[in-house]
């Protein structure tokens, strides 16, 4: 029987990794707030020469809630804007369990985000399909809900393809690519969409969802995220590169161990 991430994380706490003791006290009091800026260079197949060195900011999994404060989100926005990416991607899960009480605060905290080639967002499994995208759209975020949009960058066409968490079939993603003649980039909350992207020869996937495992145990690793092809950072399947961000917030338990939160600046290079 499959075991969910929620079950694993709760079991870890029940086994003694509680928020009151040892490493988990550190994870509760400090590490979950130890937000940092991650930089990575991503090899992209068929990247036009003019896009060599192009930068994308990735901010995902805010999970704005009683455990993830306005200050946490403000710091993420500050770090991202300080790095001045040329395009920004928001990877979903802005709140937890669709909590409408945090929809407007989460969207308002993201309002300062700006980039020369725009700010684009997708939805995660915790986001509702109406209030959250509407709140972000009011803040000039172009939401891609099973949609494709073309961006012209340095004279080259780039097709951003954004899918909902529940869009999983290769044929559904292929339909969104129909008629595309630009460089395709798949924005998918769930990194398991790497499989479909590789089959469709999409050269780059940007994801979140895993939280990097959130709790990474020495000698064991990210127990709660073992089902994902890449738990955090860069991976590759065939000619497709994926980057999976550890994200900003927490879910199920307000703890991070050996897995600090991050915002990411991704630099594209020719594969």
What can you see in these coordinates?
The protein is of the alpha/beta class and 271 residues long. The chain has one domain (37-270): 4-Layer Sandwich (Purple Acid Phosphatase, chain A, domain 2), CATH 3.60.21. Helices cover 23% and strands 25% of the residues. It has 7 helices and 12 strands. It has helices spanning 5-14, 22-29, 70-83, 103-110, 131-137, 170-177, 194-199; strands spanning 36-44, 55-59, 87-90, 119-121, 142-143, 147-153, 156-163, 183-188, 204-207, 233-237, 240-244, 262-270. The strands form 2 sheets. It has a 6-stranded mixed β-sheet, with helices on one face. A 6-stranded mixed β-sheet has the order 6-7-8-9-11-10. Strand 4, helix 5 (131-137) and strand 5 (142-143) form a beta-alpha-beta unit. The longest helix is centred in the first third of the chain and has 14 residues, at 70-83. The model is unreliable at 14-21 (pLDDT under 50).
């Amino acid at each position: 029987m499959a075991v969910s991430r929620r079950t694993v994380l709760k079991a870890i706490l029940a086994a003694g990794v509680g928020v009151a003791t040892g490493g988990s006290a550190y994870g509760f009091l400090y590490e979950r707030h130890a937000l940092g800026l991650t930089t990575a260079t991503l090899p992209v197949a068929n990247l036009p020469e003019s896009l060599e060195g192009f930068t994308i900011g990735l901010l995902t999994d805010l999970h704005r809630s009683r455990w993830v404060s306005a200050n946490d989100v403000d710091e993420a926005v500050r770090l991202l804007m300080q790095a001045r990416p040329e395009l920004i991607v928001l990877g979903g899960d802005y709140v937890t369990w669709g909590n409408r009480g945090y929809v407007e605060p989460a969207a308002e905290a993201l309002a300062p985000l700006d980039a020369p080639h725009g700010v684009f967002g997708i939805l995660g499994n915790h986001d509702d399909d109406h209030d959250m995208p509407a709140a972000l759209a009011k803040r000039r975020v172009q939401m891609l809900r099973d949609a494709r949009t073309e961006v012209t960058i340095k004279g080259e066409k780039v097709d951003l393809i954004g899918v909902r968490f529940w869009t999983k079939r290769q044929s559904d993603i292929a339909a969104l690519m129909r008629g595309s003649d630009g460089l395709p980039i798949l924005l998918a909350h769930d990194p398991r969409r790497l499989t479909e992207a590789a089959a469709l020869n999409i050269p780059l996937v940007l994801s979140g969802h895993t939280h990097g495992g959130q709790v990474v145990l020495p000698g064991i690793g990210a127990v709660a995220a073992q089902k994902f092809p890449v738990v955090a950072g860069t991976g590759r399947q065939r000619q497709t590169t994926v980057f999976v961000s550890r994200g900003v917030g927490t879910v199920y338990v307000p703890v991070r161990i050996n897995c600090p939160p991050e915002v990411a600046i991704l630099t594209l290079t020719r594969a």
